[in-house]
Design brief:
Radius of gyration: 19 Å
Strand order of the largest sheet: 1-11-8-7-5-6
Structural class: alpha/beta
Order of helices and strands: EHEHEHEHHHEHEHEEEEHEH
Helix content: 40-55%
Bound molecules: guanine
Shape: globular
Number of strands: 11
């Protein structure tokens, strides 16, 4: 029988725990989210983050700048937030407009306030097998979900489809650090379905319907990171859920799988950064 990996249920458990922990805090952590322009999907994501934070007792502010803000101005704003002792966590919602170099912006964030774990210091620590201040939210959420269901990672062939800096690359490193054998596939990969069929754990993070049932072997653990609206406005993932579910041992749905886990991880990361900064100022 196929088990559905319930991201909503685990999110609720994790956030309940975090709410209890925060109820004992004298000061609330503060997360600042920077949104540039008016990308409708980004607006929804950012508002969800703020709503979730507020329910827990985390202060959350969205700074919405016009899409023609200059790179220099955005760096200046981030520097102000880096200096502001009341701000514990900074997230710059991606994608950014074309004229802004995203690496310049990410590099400007203080590594101890980098709630995505995207700065060179945090991604470098991850690659070196050291502990970063925080782990990137989506990969962290995926590992929490696999661990919750007791799915073993060590020695398994993990196939990741998608090589983004947000999901594919950090996830590959985190899986390697957990002693998986990792294959990362992308748009230029040849014989994709031969590789996906050899997966023990198949994770797709592409953003279009790419994984059909004939690409999946029986008993595979399937994780769907993709989320987009189809032509009828229905929310869909990368995986043909109905047909793949009959073959998979475990499968994450869209919505209700990885998405809620990403938000939960963001909240966990915000509190981890807050705790670290407070501890450091006491030492
Ligand atoms: N856009 C899509 N996913 C993410 C994420 O995890 N972090 C940021 N900053 N932007 C995103």
């Amino acid at each position: 029988m196929t088990v559905i990996l319930d991201g909503k249920k685990l999110r609720d458990e994790l956030l309940d725990g975090l709410k209890g922990k925060l109820s004992n805090y004298v000061n609330a952590p503060k997360l600042v989210v920077i949104l540039v322009g008016d990308n409708p999907a980004s607006k929804i994501y950012v508002n969800n983050k703020k709503k979730t934070a507020e329910k827990l007792g985390i202060n959350s502010v969205i700074l919405n700048y016009p899409s023609d803000i200059s790179e220099e101005e955005l760096v200046r704003k981030i520097n102000e937030l880096n200096q502001d002792m009341s701000v514990n966590a900074i997230l710059v919602q991606l994608p950014l407009p074309q004229h802004i170099n995203k690496n310049t912006i990410i590099n400007a964030i203080s590594p101890i306030k980098d709630v995505d774990g995207f700065t060179p210091e945090n991604s470098g620590k991850l690659l070196a097998g050291e502990t970063p201040y925080v782990y990137p939210c989506t990969p962290k959420g995926i590992l929490l979900l696999l661990d919750k269901y007791g799915i073993e990672i060590e020695g398994k062939h993990v196939v990741i489809v998608g090589r983004s800096n947000i999901v594919g690359k950090p996830l590959a490193v985190m899986m390697l650090n957990r002693n998986a054998t990792v294959t990362v596939c992308h748009s230029r990969t040849k014989k994709l379905s031969e590789i996906t069929k050899s997966a023990d754990i198949l994770i797709s993070a592409v953003g279009r319907n790419i994984i059909s049932a004939d690409m999946v072997s029986g008993g595979t653990v399937v994780i769907d990171v993709g989320i987009y609206k189809d032509e009828n406005g229905k929310t869909r993932g990368d995986v043909d859920f109905e047909n793949v579910a009959t073959k998979a041992s475990y499968i994450s749905p869209v919505p209700g799988g990885v998405g809620p886990m990403t938000i939960a991880s963001l909240m966990l990361n915000t509190v981890e950064l807050f705790d670290f900064q407070n501890k450091r100022s006491c030492d």
